[in-house]
Amino acid sequence: VTDTAARPRVVVIGAGFAGLNAAKGLRNAPVDVLVIDQHNYHTFQPLLYQVATAGLDAGDVAHQVRDVFRRQRNVRFRMGRVERVDWEAREVLLASGDGIGFDCLVVAAGAVYHDFGIPGVFDHGFVLKSLHEAIALRSHVLRQFERAAHDPAHADHGGLTFAIVGGGPTGVEMAGALVELLDRVLPSDYPELDVSRARVVLLEMAEALLLPYGERSRAYAERVLRRRGVDVRLGAAVAEVHADHVVLAGGERLATHTLIWAAGVRGHPLGEALGTPLGRGARVQVRSDLSLEDHPEAFVIGDMALASDPDRTPLPQVAQVAIQQGRHVARVIAARLRGEAGAPFRYQDPGQMAIIGRSAGVAELAPRLGGLRFGGFLGWLAWLFLHLIYLPGHQNRVNAFASWAYNFFTYDRHARLILDEERPRRARMTRGTMRS
Amino acid sequence: VTDTAARPRVVVIGAGFAGLNAAKGLRNAPVDVLVIDQHNYHTFQPLLYQVATAGLDAGDVAHQVRDVFRRQRNVRFRMGRVERVDWEAREVLLASGDGIGFDCLVVAAGAVYHDFGIPGVFDHGFVLKSLHEAIALRSHVLRQFERAAHDPAHADHGGLTFAIVGGGPTGVEMAGALVELLDRVLPSDYPELDVSRARVVLLEMAEALLLPYGERSRAYAERVLRRRGVDVRLGAAVAEVHADHVVLAGGERLATHTLIWAAGVRGHPLGEALGTPLGRGARVQVRSDLSLEDHPEAFVIGDMALASDPDRTPLPQVAQVAIQQGRHVARVIAARLRGEAGAPFRYQDPGQMAIIGRSAGVAELAPRLGGLRFGGFLGWLAWLFLHLIYLPGHQNRVNAFASWAYNFFTYDRHARLILDEERPRRARMTRGTMRS
Predict the structure, then answer these.
(1) pLDDT of A378
(2) Cβ contacts of residue B370 below 8 Å, gap of 6+?
(3) For chain B, what is the radius of gyration of the CA atoms?
(4) Cβ atoms of A173 and A355 closer than 8 Å
């Protein structure tokens, strides 16, 4: 269905931070924009771990794409899965078989988990990239407790041991939220069970948590997690994953039925289908203005793109980079329509923040202005505040705020629902997942 | 796993209104109670239609069973599906193969839809008994719009025609909520589509809507729905259901891809597995104290039970009957433990209320005190108020109230997410569903 309108058509693949901001940035440009996503909603990935740990409802961290563009008249939405791009015909091809013509293409399909070739991750690991995966993980965790409640031997065989692989922000946030769930919420749900037998093991290959952070933040995160009962194991690499245990690099066997894979991501497989050179982590190599060398009418942004700082350091796969890149390509497209060249992308690093658990966060802000670091309760508050601001949808903000306030004062989490239907494990990760 | 404790063990099958109230009623009785349900949450069925029409999140109408009994120390919970009862061994048998011993049994597994033998209902119809079914229906409705947005022919072939079969309270509430979604919410989501082509057809076999209500309420409901654009067809029976059309009894063919089955329910199939006489609608025949003739240690309550008024009218399958029956069996069990006989069950009819849509409801209260009838805005407010009170879980109440207030003032509904994964239609209704 090629649009034959007079205005150039910009097709944006992906309604994540990068894609949404690209489409929003084209608000006043003389173009027709079509946003394509496999879901009819934007997923606010930074809060998926709270869905997985029963703090938020799935609906709180998702917002329908059409609502985002309600007042922007040059944007249309198409729900569909993109399979490849026909560069000759200038068409995006959907899984349904439909072809969608474009004059300009913005590819922002995000990242998928990277198993680094470790056997068993694909079959047995849980990842946290989509709403379905978050619900599946929450349901799985609660199912372990339901089982142990009537079958105490389940705890003897690692049923209540939850292993997280990867001590970056995702792993740290997950560990903090999970240990609080086990410690504060579930004991009163399972009076028949000795919930204190449940434990969270955080496995990190390097010798520190939160590697991209400064030393004080790293040490703080480790101290807080250990104090709250997380078994933090540094220098611990995973060699094999099985349904009921994990084998570490040294040969140690850790009994667990739940492996949460937060060890790394790679560019979305659509990057390979573009037929353009890939760099580290299967990310697409882009020029300084984020367009492709072979196809200057196409841009790749967000977690899929391998863009670099002027000093050639690859930019991290974080929301802020995606947001700024989305805005940038919108400006480049508008400039080109005026016959001007696009400027190179420069990342304005606002700093980074991670939550370690209740009342404990770390924030390292404004690195270019000398840096402002704070931790503890203030870091936690700053994190909550910023995530509320960025969460799309008025009602999501109200709900999330109400849930956080409620959790904070009552230590209760209302979303403890087992909502998936039990399916073969493999089915959980088919979408957006591949062996590298 | 027979409990060998000294206190008698009461097993309650089902965590609906009936089962929950039975277990709660045993708070001070010298018994151990085990509640079994296939889900770890109670589903507040009266609001499922709001989940299906994007007014509420799934989490808002579900509440984890363990939380309900947090402070009641003689109740335990087991998540599992009951397959049958071994009366000899006094054991409930789960699908997992486990047997659970009981001294006293309360069966409250609810109702499933009844297709009255009409071909195609099982394969193509949507029902509204579980959270998964509500999410599946919402996702299906929104998918029709996503499809029509890029394939206008879909509307020509009935893709935007939504047929509801059954003009009782469920059908009327669904019709009112659905027509508001089409009329007020979706047009701004789909500017590329002529949403006014979407329509809701309400098919009722009898010559009036809301049959159990008084004449004024019936006429009011019909008037409001027609005025809001629902195509109300009285005296219309469905003969066959197909994937893309319905055939009416007179031979008329109605093109629709969405048939919502609100025409009737029957007792849960577990009733047949009990091996005890069934009555009308596959409901289990019970004695006046709600116990079974052949198995006086067992009770059947709620939608599954065929209990009658003193004048032999069967009691309706509504929440109020289930709640009162739950409380009643708790009293009978406690009385028997004291060596007394249980009293017969007497339904105290508080009246009935249904919502027809925004600002329009009907309430017929206190029929034994002469009756108090009100409709319109007041009926609607009364309905909202009572449902908020009965909705379990503080946070659910806060969320539902916030959503209703938000919807009321903005005409917006935030839960417009397509959240199921597209699966063969059949899979949607396997649970608790059978041909009669």
Answers:
(1) 86
(2) none
(3) 22
(4) yes
Torsion of CA A377, A383, A389, A390, to 10 degrees: -170
* DSSP codes of every residue in B309-346: -TT-PBPPSSHHHHHHHHHHHHHHHHHHHTTPPPPPP-
- At residue A374, the pLDDT reads 84
Of the candidates A54, A49, A57, A56, the one whose C-alpha atom is nearest the C-alpha of residue A175 is A49
Q: Point out the catalytic residue in the list A133, A173, A204, A222.
A: A173
What is the bridge-based pairing of β-strands B82-86 and B125-126? unpaired
Q: Are strands B284-285 and B199-204 parallel, antiparallel or unpaired?
A: unpaired
pLDDT for the residue A435:
34
Contact between B218 and B180 under an 8 Å Cβ cutoff? The reply is no
Residue A67 near chain B (CB below 8 Å): yes
Three-state DSSP at B340 gives: coil
More confident residue, B329 or A396: B329
pLDDT in tens, B315-366: 999 999 999 999 999 999 999 999 999 899 999 998 888 989 888 999 898 7
Query: Percent of chain B having pLDDT more than 90?
Result: 74
Q: Is B91 a residue of the active site?
A: no
How many whole angstroms separate alpha carbon A232 and alpha carbon A209?
Answer: 9
CA A241 to centroid of chain Cα atoms: 22
Which residues of chain B from 133 to 172 reach within 8 Å of chain A, CB to CB?
142-143, 146, 149-150
d(Cα B205, Cα B234) in Å, to the nearest integer?
A: 6
**Using an 8 Å Cβ cutoff, are A18 and A302 in contact?**
yes
Q: Which residue has the tokens 């590697």?
A: A211
Answer whether A417 touches B (CB < 8 Å).
yes
**This prediction's pTM:** 0.92
Q: Which of B70, B133, B405, B61 is nearest to A415 (CA)?
A: B61
Res A165: pLDDT? 97
| Chain A residue numbers touching B418 (CB-CB < 8 A) | 39-41, 79
Among A70, A89, A80, smallest CA distance to A109 is for A80
CB-side neighbour CA atoms (13 Å) of B31: 28
Q: Which value does ipTM take for this structure? A: 0.90
